[in-house]
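Q: I'm teaching a short session on how sequence maps to structure, and I want students to see two examples side by side rather than one. Could you give me a first protein with its sequence written out and its structure tokens following it? Keep the formatting plain so it prints cleanly on a handout.
A: Of course. Example one:
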Amino acid sequence: MLVSAKGMLDQAVKGKYAVGQFNINNLEWTKAVLNAANEMNSPVILGVSEGAGKYMTGFKTVSAMVKAMIETLDISVPVALHLDHGSYDGALAAIDAGFSSIMFDGSSLPFDENLEKTKYLVNLCYGKSLSLEAEVGGIGGEEDGVTSMGEVADVNECKTIADLGVSCLAAGIGNIHGVYPSDWEGLQFDVLENIKKAVGDMPLVLHGGTGIPLDQIQKAISLGVAKINVNTECQIVFAEATRQYIEAGKDLEGKGFDPRKLLAPGYDAIVAKVKEKIKEFGSDNKANFKN
């Protein structure tokens, strides 16, 4: 059964740990994340970007797959199915498809428009018992070989959005998506501290969790980050494990070309990575709360 992310994130704030959002890209990814979280007795958030949703033939397919997998695998930990960086139309489509948590990313819009659309979605999600994540300050990343460091969030804008009643808030503090460049200057904790003071107990979200040093992760959690997104790191270990399998010629041994065998090392690598991140975030054995 899917649940809203609100309960697990509110509990994370109180317990000074973070819940991992692990983006899924196909059946193997979903199965790996669910089994890893269940083994670690950790709440978990399955993130789905609009691009990944389209790749998997649509949000309704993703929703049906996740719900069936939770039942079939006998997953007992809280699971939220979350739209990652959703547009306004994407948010409405994910709600219609049965997602239990939504992120509306209006950070690229004029602030007044971001505010207006977020306010509408807050009311819509509240009426359906769904959680809503909003974003202030664009998160950087790499595109076509060019790395953008993103925008540092404005503290007053963060408070204005938080006061709408969103479940959690993503704010740019120097974090970026993808692999961090060698000249990355680190998270801006002074900005994070000021945002935390402004929004109170609101759970904060750290996007771009791949490659951030553990000491910075832990400090961010101590300053109110309760949700950390991981995607690239799982993609990298999946690719590495698959490459090793093929380069070792195992796909040429017997029926090693069978997709179930070919993808197994990548699956195992994702399970190991998710368990590692859950331990780092401190959400292991934190599944037993009342949502």
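Q: Perfect. Now a second example for contrast.
A: Example two:
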Amino acid sequence: MNEFELKYGCNPNQKPSRIYMSGDRELPITVLNGKPGYINFLDAFNGWQLVRELKQATGLPAATSFKHVSPAGAAVGLPLTDVERKIYWVDDMGELTPLASAYARARGADRMSSFGDFISLSDVCDVATAKIVKREVSDGIIAPGYEPEALEILKAKKKGNYNVIQIDADYVPDPVEHKEVFGITFEQGRNELKIDKDMLTNIVTNNKDIPELAQIDLIISLITLKYTQSNSVCYAKGGQAIGIGAGQQSRIHCTRLAGQKADNWFLRQSPKVLGLEFVDKIGRADRDNAIDLYIGEDYMDVLADGAWENIFKVKPEVFTSEEKRAWLDQMQDVALGSDAFFPFGDNIERAHRSGVKYVAQPGGSIRDDNVIDTCNKYGMAMCFTGIRLFHH
């Protein structure tokens, strides 16, 4: 098969629509269930590249949760702590495989953005991973294979309409890629840049120490950025992205957006949030929404007279700004990647507020000295990769 017809393109009025291979080449995918759409395939193919590279770079199973052609989360299969199991809503499940842990992390980093995601897995989907996917609102999944029982679990989602795609793990695309905009064809060499620890050797700050785990987090952030709509910044910690700022016009807005998401990830681990008592049978999405309101600027909406009774068994105490700041001050050793250079030290100032200690960015700004000085002020270690990672 070298062509797959789609219902429509980005929007219902955009017809006809299809994906196809030129010449006599076969499509490297098999649709095992459902009928994926235009945006589904964009998410699937970008996500597959991301997890494939994470697996190659770290040797660990990898997963990503994509929404609108940018990752909401990406992670490798490190074991979850008890707190992480709770904030990712998998504490009631049994032992998780490394692949299941990777998806729990990828989905859990920014659960608001991951709602209705398209999932990409680096390895054959196992039963433990399928059981997590089964209980989440998701549009589809792509993987190099599926265990028979896992496939049956997934095919039962969405009344049998869940999109399940199998990709040929050996598929190699042409070295030159094309896309068309306004009837005009663009051509460029594929971004085959290999991201590994060798990219982290040019450390330009007084602090030259980037431990092994921090190097893995920086690699995760950079590979994630390689498939995130630019401008983009990614915070990472513990084998996963914890905050991604995508598609912003200014670098500082990327840093602020990603930092806010990283802060929310850490605030979910605070005793006040972990101690919230939800009414029985409330769905995970409703819990996520309530937590987001509770830790955000609109916390009074969820605590208003009468409103909380539909969500909580007991009215929660107010989570004050001072309490949140005190908790966030405990967040440490966060890694930060940027797809292009930081033009001002204000990005580092914002990153410091979210516990960033390790930074990877291309360098090359006329104000590099100011950015380096700001890192030195906080004892951060920053490397210049010399490589830009724009993605459009």
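Q: What should students look for in example two?
A: Point them to this: The first strand starts at residue 3 and ends at 5. Also worth mentioning: The first helix runs from residue 38 to 58.
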